[in-house]
Amino acid sequence: PGSQYVFSGQFAGGGNNIVTIELLDGDITSPTSMGNTVVHIAGGTYDWTFASVVGTPTQPYVTVVWKIDLEGAGPHAAHADALSLDVCDNPITVTGITPNIGANSGLVNITNLAGTGFSGTPTVTLRRPGTTITATDVTVVSTTQITCTFDLTGQPAGAYQVMVADGPCMGIYSSFVI
User: Fold this and answer.
1) What pLDDT digit, counting tens, does each position of 83-99 carry?
2) Average pLDDT over residues 104-133
3) 137 neighbors 110 (Cβ within 8 angstroms)
């Protein structure tokens, strides 16, 4: 209890299914979810998309759920690789991003990715099912601020999660809009 856990992996598949990953506070009968992430929404295919979920339990153990809900006729496919459940000793939080919107016609310079626990050389990404955009020129200004640049050229429009990762520690914030 009190430690931050990160469940992550690479996922692939397709078809009419909804794929999610989740951390439960306790066993499989626990009604308390510490968080979930949608990996795939019905239709189309996805090829080894990274996904993660972060949570801090109050119970003496956590349960990892990889859930595949069938949505109509097949074929259905869901694969996972490099699954990992890690304990984060120096938790990261992400509480805001400025600007929080960008056009898919060029670069956007992030002047204030706000949060806590920033240090070292973290990886900063925008992600949604099927798309991950990795930031360049990542600078840790302080333990509470990062600056970086995203190349949004040709990226799909919509809402993205912002993720800051440093080793097994990850902070996730929603949302950034293209």
Assistant:
1) 999 998 888 999 999 99
2) 93
3) no
